[in-house]
Amino acid sequence: MNEISVPRPNNLDAFWMPYTDNKSFKDKPRMLARAEGMSYFTPEGREILDGTAGLWCCNAGHGRREIVEAIQKQAAIMDFAPTFQMGHPIAFEAAARVAEMTPEGMDRVFFVNSGSEAADTALKIALAWHKARGDSQRVRLVGRERGYHGVGFGGMSVGGIGGNRKQFGAQLPYVDHLPHTHGVPGNLFAKGQPENGANLAEVLENLVALHGDTIAAVMVEPLAGSTGVLVPPKGYLQKLREICTKHGILLIFDEVITGFGRIGANFGAERLGVTPDIMTMAKGLTNAAVPMGAVATSNQVYDTIVNGVPAGIELFHGYTYSGHPLAAAAAIATLELHRAEDLPGRARAMEPYFEDAAHSMRDVPGVIDVRNMGLVAGIELAPRAGKPTARAMDVFKTCFDKGVLTRVTGDIVALSPPLIVEKPHIDRLFGTLADAIRAVPA
User: Fold this and answer.
1) Per-residue pLDDT tens for 146-187?
2) Residue 6, in any domain of the structure
3) H or E element at residue 48
4) How many domains does the chain have?
5) 307 Rama sector, left if φ>0, alpha if ψ -120 to 50, beta otherwise
6) Is 323 within a domain?
7) Does the CA dihedral 192-194-199-202 come out positive or negative?
8) Per residue in 262-299, pLDDT tens?
């Protein structure tokens, strides 16, 4: 009989942690053991206020009974069913619930398991659409500097964060990038959408002039989160939409962060008044209780691809766990919570107080910019001389020690609390952050 050797519970060696300085973490671990409402709790029982909704994803807060019970019930009924050439009712119900929330005319939903898979799926759908229309020459994909679209080779190639790319050599061919909107003169400490920078979208015209009719799609985040909260300038997304329509280019919105109430509407497309052709989502879709992502497309995109094939499989793409029963159950319960509690409306109602608290950081030494929209804020710090990112990481560690979870990217502290946040939570969140910035060396 084979014997199973069970490692000690505190053995940290086996888990290769993602996006982590493994050596530093394992020297001084920061462990979370339980979560409820607005808070995590360490193994010792110390409360940590969640200022980041986990990882931009627990929009309805932690430990929601309705979601837990839906997952438990579904696990007892059916743990798994394939969706290749067959289906199960709960996946169709989940897709219909998503379609009720997406912009008008975007009623077709393809399920995946993460934002990364959603990005790669959206890009493949864009290429398939052009081929179905007889435009097979349209193979070029355009992203944006400092964009983040997950870690698949498609999303990584279209993305524009150097640290995510430089370690892995060659990316996808036929990719180009628009400039980012960070650091535009006159936009420092803007509240909501900044006034300047819409003209940066016109660089797409230059790319069209350079590449001709080979551009298939442009992928951008309505509000860029992972790179440090870059809020789109007024008119910027409208101009991108206009240029894409003019030249027959599909516009893809990566709504993995902005979806499901984060900026005060179901999706960023609704809040910002621009409808894309394809939209990716994940994170808040299931409140992160079970991994799930999705791609919503316009009916035109779906119909063109599906009707372009006389018989048989129309799109040679999918995942074993597309529409997984437990994930679908979690999605249905989560979206019902969003509707019943009007979480987007709560975010809009709390936005002014959150905005004032964020901009109160302007007077903290070392803060060089503040950006915000909805319940998202980016607090940018002057980098430590010769040691970029070190100052913000020290702030992150100090906040954790003081009982508040933040997130850092570069020298920017990003905050995105669950949408159930109340004013005392906001006071504690920004008060602790201000004390931490003052406490760490410049």
Assistant:
1) 999 999 999 999 999 999 999 999 899 999 999 999 999 999
2) no
3) strand 47-50
4) 2
5) alpha
6) yes
7) negative
8) 999 999 999 999 999 999 999 999 999 999 999 999 99
